[in-house]
Design goal:
Blueprint: E1 7-8, E2 11-12, H1 16-26, H2 32-35, H3 38-41, H4 48-58, H5 62-75, E3 85-89, E4 99-107, E5 113-121, E6 133-138, E7 143-148, E8 157-163, E9 168-175, E10 178-185
Helix pairs in contact: 4-5
């Protein structure tokens, strides 16, 4: 497994050992025997990827699941369990500002899907442009969630929600008079 110097939600994950430490911080009170299936417990060389996949598939807490998914994206970007992720460079389309939109979907135990929408700066920019807005819209164009970047404070903005299979929604990214709307189906 190739590691590069990287952080996920403030956690350093540039080595396998550090990824294990993050997992132990996310699950501090639990016995590993209750979390891991016996086949993983019996293997003294449990792969970090195997553990992350198992935890992603069995954890109920959505914030923890998204943290695990981001770790897996970082250390194994094309892992099939988290393959439902699309990143679009909106720089040329959004008032000349270099920003990207990421849409990620994680299946949930109850057969619904957790959806993450995130806009972040690209290139050498540290913060998003002030007043950039990210909106989640129903199929009819009515907003159900919205967030706005603050001046020199946000290095990303995001929305999270749940959806069902075949559900349609739209994403709108707005900066001043520039508006980009994308349609999606789960």
């Amino acid at each position: 497994m190739a590691f590069r110097s990287s952080k996920v939600r403030g956690f350093e994950i540039d080595t396998s050992k550090k990824v294990w430490q993050v997992i132990e911080q996310l699950y501090p009170q639990r016995s590993w025997g209750k979390i891991l299936p016996s086949k993983l417990l019996q293997n003294s060389d449990v792969e970090v990827n195997d553990l992350l996949v198992h935890l992603l598939q069995t954890t109920d807490d959505e914030e923890t699941r998204w943290t695990l998914a981001e770790i897996l994206w970082t250390i194994t970007p094309n892992h099939p369990v988290i393959a439902a992720r699309r990143v679009m460079d909106l720089g040329m389309q959004l008032a000349g500002k270099s920003v990207a939109l990421m849409v990620a979907i994680l299946p949930k135990i109850d057969k619904t899907f957790a959806v993450l929408l995130r806009v972040y700066p690209m290139g050498n920019q540290i913060y998003l442009p002030t007043d950039l807005r990210l909106s989640g819209l129903y199929e009819n164009g009515q907003p159900f969630l919205e967030v706005q970047a603050r001046e020199k404070q946000d290095n990303y903005i995001q929305l999270k929600f749940c959806a069902e299979l075949s559900e349609k929604f739209q994403i709108r990214v707005t900066l001043n008079n520039a508006v980009i709307t994308e349609k999606f189906v789960i």
